[in-house]
Amino acid sequence: MKAEIDELETNSKSKNNRDCHRGISDIKKGYQHETNLVEDEKGDLVADSHSILARWRNHFSQLLNILGVNNIRHTAIPTAQPLMPEPNAFEVEMAIEKLKKTQITRY
Questions:
Q1: Shared domain check, 19 and 2
Q2: Residue 98 covered by a domain
Q3: Are 1 and 16 in the same domain?
Q4: In terms of pTM, does the model score above 0.70?
Q5: 36, 47 in Cβ contact below 8 A?
Q6: Which positions ≥6 away from 101 have C-beta within 8 Å?
Q7: Are residues 45 and 17 in the same domain?
Q8: Is residue 97 one of the residues assigned to a domain?
Q9: Which of 11, 29, 61, 90 could form a disulfide with 19 if both were Cys (CB 3.0 to 4.6 A apart)?
Q10: Is residue 94 part of a domain?
Q11: How far is it, in rounded angstroms, from Cα 18 to Cα 63?
C-alpha cells in the first residue's frame, strides 16, 4: 500500500493526471479477483489458460473455416433509386454562379 501511495504522489507531482486518477480508482475498488472460465464443446468449464486458448482457437477455426458452402443462392440485391434526377448543365452553372456571388460578398 505504501508503494501505491508513493506512486500516486509521484504522479500527482509530475502532473500525470491519467495515472494518478487510475491509481486512485484502483485503490477505491480494492482487490477484485478475476477468473477466466470458458465452456468447452461438452459444456464443462475450463480454467487452464492453455485449454482456454485451445478452446478459442478451435471455436474460431470452426466459425471462420466453413467448407462446402457452394449451395448458396445468388440473389439480386435491390439498389436504391435516386430520389432526385441528375442536375442538368444549366442547374450546375447556376449553382456555381451562386457560389461565386456568396464568396465575393463575404470578403
A1: yes
A2: no
A3: yes
A4: no
A5: yes
A6: none
A7: no
A8: no
A9: 11
A10: no
A11: 39
- The C-alpha cell at 55 is 478452446
The most confident of 33-37, 50-54, 70-74, 101-105, by mean pLDDT: 50-54
- The three state secondary structure string of the chain is CHHHHHHHHHHHHCCCHHHHHHHHHHHHHCCCCCCCCEECCCCCEECCHHHHHHHHHHHHHHHHCCCCCCCCCCCCCCCCCCCCCCCCHHHHHHHHHHHHHHHHHHC
Query: Is residue 52, in this structure, part of any structural domain at all?
Result: yes
CB contact at 8 A, 52 and 40:
no
Q: What would the pLDDT profile of 36-70 be if each residue is shown by its tens digit?
A: 888 988 889 988 889 999 999 988 888 877 665 55
Cell numbers given for 97 = 454562379
Residues 96 and 90 sit within 8 Å (Cβ to Cβ):
no
Q: How many domains does the chain have?
A: 2
